[in-house]
Amino acid sequence: MCSKIILYALCVLYLEISLVSALDLTKTHISNPRVCIIGAGLAGLTSAKYLKEEGIKFVVLESTRYVGGTWRYDSRVGYDENGLPLHTSMYMHLRTNLPKPTMELRGFPLPDDIPSFPSWKIYYNYIKDYAKHFDLERDIKFLHNVILVSRVNDIWNVKYQNVLTGEEFEDEFDFVIVGTGHFSKPNMPNIPGEEKFSGSIIHSHDYRDPIRYKGRRVLVVGAGPSGMDIAIDVAYAAKTLVHSHHSKINFRTVFPKHYIRKPDVQEFNETGAIFKDGSYEDLDDVIYCTGFQYYYPFLDESCGLNLTPQSVTPLYKYMVNIYQPTMLVMGLVVRACLVVALDAQSRYATALIKGNFTLPPKEEMLEEWQKRADSIISRGRPISDIHFLAEKEDEYYAELTKESGIGRVPPVMFKIRAIDTEAKLENLYTYRNYAYTVIDNENFVRSLDNITENNSGNNL
Ligand SMILES: Cc1cc2nc3c(=O)[nH]c(=O)nc-3n(C[C@H](O)[C@H](O)[C@H](O)COP(=O)(O)OP(=O)(O)OC[C@H]3O[C@@H](n4cnc5c(N)ncnc54)[C@H](O)[C@@H]3O)c2cc1C
Ligand SMILES: *[C@@H]1O[C@H](CO)[C@@H](O)[C@H](O)[C@H]1NC(C)=O
Ligand SMILES: *[C@@H]1O[C@H](CO)[C@@H](O)[C@H](O)[C@H]1NC(C)=O
Ligand SMILES: *[C@@H]1O[C@H](CO)[C@@H](O)[C@H](O)[C@H]1NC(C)=O
Ligand SMILES: *[C@@H]1O[C@H](CO)[C@@H](O)[C@H](O)[C@H]1NC(C)=O
């Protein structure tokens, strides 16, 4: 009798397993799923908010004692009080580089009485208010650092450690949402002669405040968003600001007289840098604004992702791990309104986990990805471009909605970003003077911002 029941149960189990594997290799519809969210920055918080609304069980594992990730300023560099590398790359004078409407999380308006491009302080408070308003903190295990995520017997095994006690835990989950950000691990250029140079060399990850550069000769390397912003911030204090980069972007900003544009650095010697054009500058300090690396030391090979410092592949819709589609990697879009994109991705992930839609078969997802990869390679571009949205941003939002049924990110977001990009090219000193007011899903008006914030300027 007993053995008959067991035999029957085994048969059913076997049938179920073979049906599942035969019918749908990318099956993601699991009843009563358990979700592990890694990180309590914007990606983790928005995911938590939407999963909670759907009544889906989840836990957020966060290695620090704070929400907000990189938006929390910390005057220290190096390691935190628990011996973990400091995650944040925030600096004292940072104001958002995108205007208010494109920094807003769905269902939680930014206050009216703040500047169009608020300081990190205002924005960090906004994130904390979001966590409070949606009562998310109770579901966050703070001070728990994820050390290993592996795929074992068709389930996610997540190993994490209490950073205070060292105690290790292991839990099983049906889905993993990776929200650990990608502006934390410095990408160092390794220029010849660095070791000879007698001045200071830091990466923008460790840049906090221009005061220490007062009256000094400073080299800033790189012309990405951090390079441009930090060059201007340091130029207020420095005696000379040497800016070395090879950007082909047509920046039309008129810089002050003590700003000197240079090509790439050839090498350093004890007293300064020799540039590719053979010229030389005496220097006291160097700041590398050379970007960040993708860094997921906790993702085991069994996760099925190809991880390099420049790319995370292959991903469907810039976030679904194609070989293990119950893993979602958030925020891996470049040249986009990242906050708006993260919010949409969190809703897409929630709709997927909820079972509102099913993913296409693996072959189809791979094909879509491969097409994009081939086009990048055929244009002679580096594979890191695989994360660029740029002109395709609005189309991306439309696709997410079409596939998953989530509310559409209004096209006006992309339009604002386009005009703001133009304003940046025109003048990096003044683009933050504009305020953008959304009229409807397609339209906005631009005016001069008349709200100023205390202590937010670059005045020394
Ligand atoms: C200097 C700077 C300025 C920026 N300015 C803008 C801007 O103006 N506008 C804009 O839209 N975007 C801006 N960004 C981009 C910014 O990264 C996003 O706005 C957003 O904060 C990304 O959120 P996230 O949750 O993906 O990552 P993060 O904010 O980096 O959060 C990741 C979280 O994961 C935690 N974590 C990491 N590893 C582990 C682990 N192993 N276990 C547990 N927890 C872990 C971290 O402690 C952190 O709390 C800026 C970024 C930087 C660095
Ligand atoms: C570094 O190189 C420059 C240019 O060649 C030179 O003028 C300078 O004296 C050198 N510094 C040292 C310490 O040799
Ligand atoms: C899932 O579908 C239901 C029913 O249509 C809808 O109410 C819910 O908002 C959807 N969830 C998400 C995250 O899109
Ligand atoms: C600036 O101030 C005027 C008058 O007080 C107000 O009508 C206008 O809406 C303000 N502009 C913005 C962008 O807030
Ligand atoms: C700004 O500073 C002034 C004077 O120091 C103060 O009265 C005002 O309340 C401050 N405003 C904000 C938003 O902190």
From TrEMBL:
Coiled coil: none
Origin superkingdom: Eukaryota
N-terminal signal peptide: 1-22
Cofactor needs: FAD
EC primary class: oxidoreductase
Alphabetical keyword list: FAD, Flavoprotein, Monooxygenase, NADP, Oxidoreductase, Signal
Keyword presence, Phosphoprotein: no
EC nos: 1.-.-.-
Membrane spanning stretches: none
UniProt cross-references to InterPro entries, sorted A to Z: FAD/NAD-bd_sf, Flavin_mOase, Flavin_mOase-like, FMO-like
One Pfam entry name: FMO-like
Similarity annotation: Belongs to the FMO family.
Name this protein carries in UniProt: Flavin-containing monooxygenase
Source organism (scientific name): Vanessa tameamea
